[in-house]
């Protein structure tokens, strides 16, 4: 029986593996995908990190790129592969965890490859579980091409005609930027255009340098300022939203309210010419496959810095696990180090 099984082989799971190996623990990493880095490779082709190289280092191995470089998804995936190889982590791919149940002081993980048993479990599946789209998307004509940002790769997927991009987060604006750059067709944007933006560099220093020296990334989610930051609308980083919105072929239409067949109702106008919709509308968490787990009102596990209310069950890679930095590639190692120290 393994000491630990880690579910998820991206940055969170690999960070935990590093600290477990340092302590000579017997563990196995399982992942549903067919290769290391797949969770990044599955995202849109032009995706780049908001954080430059110097803020992307996992524990024990620097990110292999020059300072100030903003890596793309392919570089991140290659880094993960090299990380696994360097530390010789035991990884079992193509293994989907279907349920976790604690019984007789150990855990049984049911997978598509059979059952696995271990003394303790670390869930590192991240926050992006079920792509969310409004219910009324089912009322739209089958002739209209609809895709969630989770499956969007590039503008070549779209059919000829106008496109509606729904969602005012980083993903929505990056995809809006790419699509409107690559077509003369109308690109509608549905979301808040009155949003704060931050450049990637300020006074010759990267935004993340400023975040670090001001302590922005280190405020605990339970602190007064941490609570305020976590509940506020996050700014768009590194995307010139105002310039994108001003493009001749970009038309802001407010919020999408309803739809029927080929008609889409928004808060500013009714659209009848849309041929494509990209739903950059986020995700909903799904931890229902873990038996007898306590969830909070947002659907995430109740925990203290990754230590759940079930003895021997841990989480890493959740949004605001401890600080804003918990969601960054380079920040995950602090959470992993703390969790490893607490449970070993």
Give an overview of the whole structure.
Helices cover 22% and strands 25% of the residues. The protein has 344 residues and is of the alpha/beta class. The chain has 2 domains: 2-129 and 285-343, 3-Layer(bba) Sandwich (FAD/NAD(P)-binding domain), CATH 3.50.50; 133-196 and 233-279, 3-Layer(bba) Sandwich (FAD/NAD(P)-binding domain), CATH 3.50.50. Strands 1, 2, 3, 4, 5, 6 and 23 form a 7-stranded mixed β-sheet that branches. A 5-stranded parallel β-sheet has the order 8-19-9-10-15, with helices on one face. Strand 4 and strand 5 form a beta hairpin. Helix 1 packs parallel to helix 3 (73-87) and helix 1 packs across helix 8. The radius of gyration is 21 Å and the shape is globular. This is Potassium transporter Trk. Keywords: Oxidoreductase. One of its GO terms (molecular function) is flavin adenine dinucleotide binding.
């Amino acid at each position: 029986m393994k000491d630990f099984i880690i579910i998820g082989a991206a940055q969170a799971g690999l960070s935990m593996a590093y600290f477990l190996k340092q302590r000579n623990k017997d563990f196995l990493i399982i992942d549903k995908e067919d290769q290391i880095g797949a969770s990044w490779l599955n995202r849109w082709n032009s995706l780049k990190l908001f954080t430059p190289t110097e803020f992307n280092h996992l524990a024990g191995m620097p990110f292999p790129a020059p300072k100030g470089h903003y890596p793309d998804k392919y570089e991140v995936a290659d880094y993960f592969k090299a990380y696994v190889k360097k530390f010789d982590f035991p990884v079992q791919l193509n293994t989907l965890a279907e349920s976790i149940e604690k019984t007789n002081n150990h855990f049984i993980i049911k997978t598509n490859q059979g059952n696995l048993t271990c003394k303790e479990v670390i869930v590192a599946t991240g926050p992006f579980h079920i792509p969310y789209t409004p219910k009324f998307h089912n009322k739209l004509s089958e002739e209209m091409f609809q895709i969630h940002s989770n499956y969007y790769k590039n503008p070549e997927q779209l059919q000829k005609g106008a496109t509606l991009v729904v969602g005012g987060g980083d993903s929505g604006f990056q995809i809006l930027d790419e699509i409107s750059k690559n077509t003369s067709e109308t690109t509608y944007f549905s979301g808040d255009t009155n949003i704060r933006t931050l450049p990637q560099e300020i006074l010759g220093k990267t935004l993340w340098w400023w975040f670090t020296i001001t302590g922005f990334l280190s405020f605990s989610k339970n602190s007064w300022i941490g609570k305020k930051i976590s509940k506020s609308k996050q700014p768009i980083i590194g995307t010139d939203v105002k310039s994108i919105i001003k493009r001749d072929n970009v038309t802001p239409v407010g919020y999408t309210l309803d739809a029927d067949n080929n008609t889409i109702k928004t808060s500013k106008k009714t659209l009848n010419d849309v041929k494509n919709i990209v739903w950059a509308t986020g995700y909903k968490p799904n931890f229902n496959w873990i038996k007898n787990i306590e969830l909070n009102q947002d659907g995430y596990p109740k925990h203290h810095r990754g230590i759940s209310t079930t003895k021997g069950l841990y989480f890493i890679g959740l949004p605001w696990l401890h600080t804003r930095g918990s969601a960054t590639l380079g920040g995950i190692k602090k959470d992993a180090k703390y969790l490893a120290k607490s449970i070993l």
